[in-house]
Amino acid sequence: MKITGKDVEKVALLSRLEVSHDQIDLFASQLNDVLDYAESLNQVDTEHVEPMAHVLPIQNVMRPDEVKPSLPREAAQQNAPEVENGYFKVPKVVED
User: Fold this and answer.
1) Which of 54, 60, 73, 89 is 20 to 30 A from residue 46's alpha carbon, by CA?
2) Backbone angles phi, psi at 75, to 5 degrees
3) Statement: residue 96 has pLDDT above 90
4) Cβ atoms within 10 Å, residue 27
C-alpha cells in the first residue's frame, strides 16, 4: 500500500493541520519510506526470538491504593479564576 498525496491531504484535514503542496509530496514520500522500512522488518527471521513488550526490563512503580482525606474544596478553589455555587466556572467551549 502506497501513501498518496490525497492520503496526506485527508489526514491533514482530519487532524486540522495546514500543509503546503510541497509538504504534501514530502510527507507522502517520508511516510512511504516508513512503510517500506516496516515492511523490510517482516523479512527478519524472528522464529527463535521470544516476544516481549519492552526492550528493557521495565516494572511498574505503583504505590498501594489507599483512601486518604482529600483537599478541602475551599483550598482547592482558592486560586480558581471563578467559582460559582462551589464549582469551578470555566468558559463555554461547546456551542449550542
Assistant:
1) 60
2) -70, -40
3) no
4) 19
